[in-house]
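Cross-check.
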Amino acid sequence: MADRPGWDEYFLEIAKVVATRCTCDRGPKKGCVLVKNNRILATGYAGSPPGQPHCDSVFGHLMVGNHCLRTIHCERNALNFAARYGVSVDGATCYITQSPCFKCTQDLVSAGIIRIVVSEDTYHPEEERMRVERENLFCEFEVFKKSSKVRNEHES
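Predicted model, tokenized:
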């Protein structure tokens, strides 16, 4: 049998595909996958609320200061989707293509996310991990390091 990716690598690859749906071109394309017991609960990408114009539409960005208010971060979109459809994310893991901002980290932890895994090529992941620890946010923050010989402990 061919070597299969471990669960962390698998879900991070899915997050990269989710990121391709991003509709705001101001920052990096980010994708998020919320997972519990190796099952996907919700996904999210940076974009406008359902039914609202996107940044890449004729309406463009809705700027206030240096921030586009039209776009919801991918983490918030995934949490909103889960809430809208009654899916509990308590005890879940968040796989994300880039480190979440501090507000999104707070939202993830408040919703019950117990682990955040980011790609190793993300922007300042160690700085984000230290911030999570410094602020006493009760969440495990990991930077995924791809290794063909190391398999996830919860393989099935």
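The chain is about 30% helix and 20% strand. The helical segments are 7-19, 74-84, 102-111, 125-134. Passed to J.P. for a second look.
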